[in-house]
């Protein structure tokens, strides 16, 4: 019986010109967004590889020079982007994908397209995720708002209700019928997506694609179930549509904006200028604010002289400047750790409180999951930033240690090292966190999505009577 | 005057809409093989009675029973054996007559009947061969009512609830409809039909009830009375 209901719903939908038009538009947009996103991803990946290689060659190819100027010469670290980032670019356009690693400072990320884009460009930047998150739900609403309310209005619901069909069967059947019509549109896109991903990253990519598919299917299920529930209650199709469009706007625009604003108010972050100023002050005066660099230098010198029982730094068994520079670097690292940890924690707290908005908008949870699976969420940005920062520290330590160990007294800045030293630094590599860690990061979002599914399922099963007029 | 136990019965059926008493302790009893015609002015409560048997309306007092089962307590079971034909049978305009019948028949019986069987029902109901595969969007009112009859046939309904099924049909179509009704009655169906057509009530009804303001004010056998007397009786009741 449910099959028959689904079949009829499917048949009616696919015969309806409006369905064909709207599904065609959404399917076309999704396909174009995916293909364009994928092409851009592949070009960027190629550019990044080329840049990484030539930069590495430049580093190795440095002539004999002082290690400290090599540290200032520096290196770029590029964030490798998972192929799925072509579906959901997440925070990348805002936080950037490359970092300049040099002596003395932890830099902010560069290559933030959102910073250079005009408002129009930002709007035109339709990723597949935007289509999946906003347009497909709109399509579902357009397809299903009349499922019951329309039949009620046309009078066919009376005929249907006179047959003795359980409401639950009607609900399930209609849901399946609409789902089948949607599948007509989504399956080709999923096939193209799988082909692209498989071609780009093999089995792990498919696993991620499967996870992402599951998340979006759950989301569509919630939207479809809610649409049918509203349609079953509404007196007229028009009333159902008005309610559903309002809900669509709350889910997609109002609640996420509001949640983000509230989260920012609850956990304010400093502006870039304030942040840099704070870090600079702490670098100069120490985290406690009472140990200026000169005093720290003096203390270090005194303690070394005492420990080695010598009168002048020139008598130390290693180059004092090299040693002191590394100490300075370590102090800087402490400062960076302190301030960046604080910053990251604030961002994480913002994300957590944003999830409160998921009471009104399942999309908030879906967005976190989607970004996470695509490898473009804040947590994975942080993982990369941390890894790049560790590499920067390793680089600086290698350079400073080389000076401390090899430079003669007073020759810290005239001592020259050669390619052997440059080559002793392994090239930077970064392994993105696996899918398991993504689930751990976004456990709450996953639970929220499951709760939404449960809620809709329970309400659907509970609806036993349908008013026919 | 039921000869066997009634298929349809109302016992003290009462329904209130605000201050309006749409049904006022109505008693009815209709046995297999009977066509009970319910007459009465607009707003007398005929549709409300039928809606109570369909569980579209929950009575405030009394019960409606089908085959001895209380409708409000067994809404799904009691519907299994009934067919409902309102003034205009509402169908899916995007689907053909055959597809509509297939859908409703499958939902009603739980299994998809063979296409030949469905076609036979549509032909029996009076649709032409070339019409049954056309989309219902282009059907006339009479053609829609025929699909309604075909649904009743396919469902093998032995309870028919008809709410002014022939109002607006041309005389020939109306005649055909009532001929089919006679067919179903002969097969043992119990029919409850609300109508304003005194002539048809006398012709194809076995019993006639007259309602006024939610009450049954008269009940008689159709063969007890002539056309002229029926009209007189009806008007007398409407006047006071
Ligand atoms: N949903 C409703 N809300 C309020 N009042 C209603 C409703 N349905 C019916 N009524 C009232 O109940 C009374 C009986 O209505 P009903 O439709 O049963 O009459 P009827 O005999 O079928 O009339 P008609 O010949 O016009 O079809 C009327 O006074 C009507 O106004
Ligand atoms: Mg009526």
Please tell me about this protein's structure.
The complex is a heterodimer of chains A (469) and B (240). Chain A has one domain (2-462). Chain A contains 19 helices and 3 strands. With 469 residues, chain A is an all-alpha fold. In chain A, α10 (167-233) packs across α19. The model of chain A is unreliable at 114-124 (pLDDT under 50). In chain A, strands 1-2-3 form a 3-stranded antiparallel beta sheet. Chain A is 74% helix and 3% strand. Chain B is α/β, with parallel strands linked by helices and 240 residues long. A 6-stranded mixed beta sheet of chain B has the order 6-7-8-3-9-10, with helices on both faces. Chain B has a 4-stranded antiparallel beta sheet with strand order 2-1-4-5. In chain B, β4 (61-66) and β5 (69-70) form a beta hairpin. Chain B is globular and about 50 Å long. The interface between A and B is medium-sized, with 23 and 30 residues. The complex binds adenosine-5'-triphosphate and magnesium ion (MG).
Concise synopsis of the structure shown:
The complex is a heterodimer of chains A (469) and B (240). Chain A is mainly α and 469 residues long. Chain A has helices at 2-15, 17-60, 67-73, 92-95, 113-116, 119-124, 128-144, 146-154, 156-161, 167-233, 237-266, 272-285, 293-308, 320-354, 362-374, 378-406, 419-424, 435-441, 443-462; strands spanning 75-78, 98-101, 106-110.
Give a short account of the largest sheet of chain B.
Answer: 6 strands, mixed
Identify the strand order in the major beta sheet of chain A.
1-2-3
Name the quaternary structure: heterodimer
How are the strands of the largest sheet of chain B arranged? 6-7-8-3-9-10
What is the CA-based Rg of chain B, rounded? Answer: 18 Å
Query: Proportion of β residues of chain A?
Result: under 5%
Give average pLDDT of chain A, whole number.
86
Low-pLDDT stretches of chain B: none
* Intertermini distance of chain B: 27 Å
Number of strands of chain B: 10
Which cofactors or ions or other ligands sit in this model?
Answer: adenosine-5'-triphosphate, magnesium ion
The H/E string of chain A reads: HHHEHEEHHHHHHHHHHHHHHH
Shape of chain B: globular
Give the helices and strands of chain B as they follow along the chain.
Answer: EEEHEEHEHHHEHEHEEH
